[in-house]
Amino acid sequence: MRSNKNQKQKLDKRKLAVRIIAWILILMTVVTTLYTAIYFIVMNVQGAELASKEISVAVGLLYGEKADVALTAQTTNGFTVGSEKMGLYEKTFTELWSLPDTKRITALCDKNYAKIGDGYRLSGTMNVGAYRIDTGVSFKERSKAEAEYKKITNLLSGTGYYAVPAYIYGTYKIRVGSFLTSEAASAAIADVKSHLTGYNNLTVKAPSATGTYLIDHNSMTALFEYDYGKNEFLAVDAINANGKEAYLTMYNQKLYDGVFVFKRYTSQTSGDHVEVITVAPLEQYVMGVVTEEISISWPLETQKAFAILARTVVVSNMGRHWDEGFNICATANCQVYGGVGRVTETVRQAVNSTKGIVTTYGGKLASMFYSSSTGDCTADVSDVWVSDLAWMHGVQTPWEAYHDHPNAFWTAEVSPTELCAYLNGKGYDQLHDSIASISIDETSNDVSSYVCSITFTDTHGNKAVIKKCQDVQLKLANYVKSANFVVGKGSVEYTTYTKTVPPSNTVHAVTAAAAPNSLFSIITGSGTDTFSFDKSVKVATGSGTYDYAPDGNISVITSSGTVTVGAASGVQPGGDDSYIVTETMKAKDPNNFIFVGKGWGHGVGLSQWGLYDLAQMHIDYDDMIQAYCPGVSFSDYKKFVNW
Q1: From the CB of residue 372, how many other CB atoms can be counted at a distance below 10 Å?
Q2: Residue 571 shares a structural domain with residue 592
Q3: CA distance 401 to 407
Q4: Residue 516's pLDDT band (boundaries 50, 70, 90)?
Q5: Count of alpha carbons within 13 angstroms of residue 424, beta-carbon side
Q6: Helix 345-353, helix 282-293: angle, nearest 10
Q7: What are the Cα distances from residue 478, in Å, to 118, 422, 469?
Q8: Angle between helical axes of 621-628 and 300-316 (0-180°, round to 10)
Q9: Looking at the domain assignment, is residue 480 inside a domain?
């Protein structure tokens, strides 16, 4: 009996354990299911948020040693005053105050200023003083601060004093007046207090090392005071009216849609200044680059291609000036940005139709470079700068009509003595008297004529060598516009294209043959086209039709290479030599050196004028970019942004 009882107890315990385990498993299943559901909900929400995000670009307009002690901005309907918090990709403008009746403001360091002409300068003679009387009141809510400001303004009406709203480290304050010194402000406290009944905690507010403030440019009246240290910055936006967008303007009279950020900048050499940075959404920024870097009259496809380039450049360089407090500068050192004043419908269409698109290579963001023109080839990036990028190797660009473009074909003549003196001024002191010979030792690659090593020898046998295409261009800047040149004494031979031809990646002909009856047949992706051989020959491609003048042999660039067709010989392997001629350029003085060159700029990547030429050939924007950078693909920039 005892044995049966023990067995029953063991059985009951086992059943209980099984039930407990079953309940644990059920709970684990429920928890796992809930976790999975919550995870997917959160991830979907985050994914949707990321998909809807757009980075903002902080562009340095005046900064560092170029900043000024006072900066003036204008608009048509008044200003919204706020605080700008800037992250590498995200920027947040928080509205703090409104100045609807002020059309022209000046941002100042927290110091005393005198008005000189139409500008302001730091001065010990007061037009605008940085000392104020603090009323002792503070608020977190804007509405309460506005009510208090109106109250104090009414109390001071007719007294010669006026109220100044302030936002100091996240708190609104109301201050009074504009005084040159602490002593002057202290002396006025009793008088101010007599008008502000009930305000018993009046104190003198001294200037701050990080503060800034706004004044009405004409009346010299302080409008708003701001200090948030080095974390957030005073900013203004234009107030829109009647459903119409309003813009900000500055010293350059360009229109900007976005905000102006004013930051204190202190230099040991030049003292206190105010920097100005403009913040704009990415696509708006791209529009402002397209209008400055290329002509707004250029074809839509060129503008599309350039929009992708400009977008890729800025996304690749968001950290370039971050140590200075902004993403990218507004000059050619980064890429020129001019706001929205010249944006046309074509520019908007180009940017909006390529929205978010950047170039990629091997699944990663592919940095882009461009210059005005490159001539008939480009240079390897590693021969110009240091890094090697697989998609930035030098290629032939026979479609560039460089003879027709400004500064894209050039010559320069210099005497041996003058050249020696010039090189001495560039640091090559080993050269003496005059240059006897110049030799181009190396070009960028087999298809590129960009010079990456050149030797100068003087009449005593002394030598000076310049390496790297960029150094060659910079050291010889008086004579060359790019490193794509040849040089000779008295005369020099150079090559030129008689006709521009489209890039091979855009021509879809696969077979060519000459018929016995002098008819020329081209088999393309769309079928077969036949033309008379005794006249001009038209080559039909997937991107348009091109004319080639026959000279007994016709060269056709196909997707597989180049084939040459004779009058009766059929298809033969060949090159594009029929488009290339050699000419000789002579110096005016046979004893002088003569440089003959093509292109304008560093020669890496894409040519702005070359994109224009490709558009004239009806080449699509993606084929344009791939012609200069074989192997690149296209993707949404958000895949490469670490929010």
Answers
A1: 20
A2: no
A3: 12
A4: very low
A5: 15
A6: 130
A7: 39, 9, 15
A8: 60
A9: yes
Distance CA 632, CA 18 (A): 61
- Give me the pLDDT at residue 406, please: 94
Query: How far apart, in whole angstroms, are the C-alpha atoms of residue 341 and residue 351?
Result: 16
User: Does a structural domain hold residue 391?
Assistant: no
Residues 235 and 119 grouped into a single domain: yes
Among the candidates 259, 279, 299, a domain finishes at: 279
DSSP code of residue 168: E
**What is the distance between the alpha carbons of residues 485 and 443, in angstroms, rounded to a whole number?**
10
Instruction: Give the pTM.
Output: 0.81
Are 626 and 550 in a shared domain?
A: no
| Residue for token pair 């003087």 | 458
Residues 104 and 250 in one domain: yes
Q: Are residues 262 and 162 in the same domain?
A: yes
Angle at 371 between CA 601 and CA 600, to 5 degrees: 35
Compute the distance between CA of residue 353 and CA of residue 445 in angstroms, rounded to an integer. Answer: 36
Claim to verify: residue 171 and residue 215 sit in the same structural domain: yes
Q: pLDDT tens-digit profile of 183-221?
A: 999 999 999 999 999 999 999 999 999 999 999 999 999
Q: What is the pLDDT of residue 636?
A: 97
| 150 Ramachandran zone, left/alpha/beta (phi>0; psi -120 to 50) | alpha
Number of domains the chain is built from: 4
Judge if 160 and 306 occupy the same domain: no
Same domain, 564 and 585: no
Please give the residue range of the domain that contains residue 450.
Answer: 402-499+581-598
What does the block give as tokens for 135? 């009323």
Strands (E), 322-414: 328-329, 357-361, 364-365, 370-371, 409-414
For 497-636, where are the alpha helices, taking DSSP H only?
608-616, 621-628
What is the helix, strand, coil percentage profile of the chain, to 5?
30, 35, 35
Mind listing the pLDDT tens digit for each residue in 30-49?
656 655 555 444 444 444 44
